[in-house]
Design brief:
By secondary structure, the chain is α+β, with helices and mostly antiparallel strands. It folds into three domains: 160 residues, Beta-galactosidase, Chain A, domain 5 (Distorted Sandwich); 94 residues, Immunoglobulins (Immunoglobulin-like), CATH 2.60.40.10; 232 residues, 3-Layer(aba) Sandwich (Rossmann fold). It is 19% helix and 37% strand.
Length: 531
Amino acid sequence: MKRIIYVLAITALCVSAHSATLTKTAEGYLAEGNMYRAVVTDSGEMSSFKLAGTECLVGEGGCAAEPGTNLNKLPGGKVTASGNVLTVTGEKYKITYTFTDKNVNIKTESDSAKYNIRLTPTAFARRPDLSWHAAAMAMDCFDRFAFFPGGSRNLLVEGITVNWWSWTYGTDITLTPRVNTPADTEGYNTAAKVPCKELTVYSPTEYRVFQRDRAYQTVVRFAGKTEGDKVKIRLWGKSLKGEFDVGDEIEADKSTGAFNGSLRADAGGWYKASIRACKGGKLIKEKIINHVGVGEVFIGAGQSNSTNCGQFQIKSETGMVVCFDGEKWQPGSSPFTGTHDDSVAGCYYPAFGDALYRRYKVPVAVASTGHGGSSIEQWLPDAVADENYPGHGRGAMYEFLLGRMNQLGRGGFRAVLWHQGETNAICDVPTEVENMTRIIRSSTRDAGWEFPWFVAKVSYGSPEHPSFDPIRQVHQTLWDTGVALEGPDTDTLTGDMRDFEGKGIHLSPKGLKKHGEMWAERVSEYLDKVL
């Protein structure tokens, strides 16, 4: 029986759960945390610090004399490792590297030296919200700053001094990788003085859906930059209550041109939004966003049947379903981009969104984050992935999911839709209940607010083995204990609901449509109670 499942579950990887690793390699000492990979050489210098695969360092970092001495490094020291701590002892100094899941701390003990590290100079960003300050002698000096190497991550560097040639010095430096939020990107663009031609709009964007609250309303945020001094904002269209039209005027920051404002909006859409930049009472630029919604937003997670692994792609029939991939919002037809596995076939979300729209008459958005063949263990916050699959770094898949949650923000989505079980079909029930409970509770803690998880009952392997009791018991226990809300029982999707003429583990177009409708039914039972 186990052998059958190992074949049908696509790929069930063995994953251990423990704290940050520190391993001796040919490069030196390799440390891996949630979102970083660092290397310290045998002489005690940090030679690499990668964030999401991007190298953040130029040259090597180690102990040096005070600024102004041409970075003359002190003699190399003796390196000793203990757990997740590296100690470098030299003639006149001592460096202690402490590697945790979340960050790296570098502490220097010396009367005459500080630790120095050189970061990629093109990625520096002075951030007013990170307490930067200017020092004497025309040198840019900071006690903390954000560093953007590209992509969706940034690096918070604390306890340092930065000068114009891009070296950092400090006696107690902390490097903390973070997931970019829209506010991070906006702040970076403003601080780095990204050029603005009359008007740049960060929010709202085309097809953005804002999560409504229980009062059938929400706040639609307007943000951007302008050369003007005032911005007139307006939102109008058809809400659930009828025609809707609201507007306001906000001032732009005199030094940066940044503007921030909001409008309280009823559930509905698509709305149109206008942003009109004015200078000296005259209109200089106007932008119209044609699709802004106030409705329902969800995050999808799990393994292949939560991603784009259906036999064929299906489309939304209503035109009111949206996909959010972490960077952009776009009309929601298969595939739903933004998954951890980058799959590109069919998914159930178009049918799910259509069914919810027909019931509630508001736009529906889904951010899909799953990975085909993934196990529960691989989603743990401190899971260690295989070298090539599904990703590098401690808790890579959990951090990917959490990153999407942070991008949507507090109150920015209704719930998580979890569809996973095939890989763990034969399992130790108490262990997997504990693991799932940890994933769920960690996500609300780390995101900083409470939101529900819906968990489907799923274990289907083949027509000969359509269900497996152990993992179904796990799902039932999560429901019974209130850790998760009840999702659909998709083991009932058999026969022509499956691909390859009913012989496959994934779903046919007919099955994808039914799958979406089943999810919509479960979610509707919950929404009818809370709305």
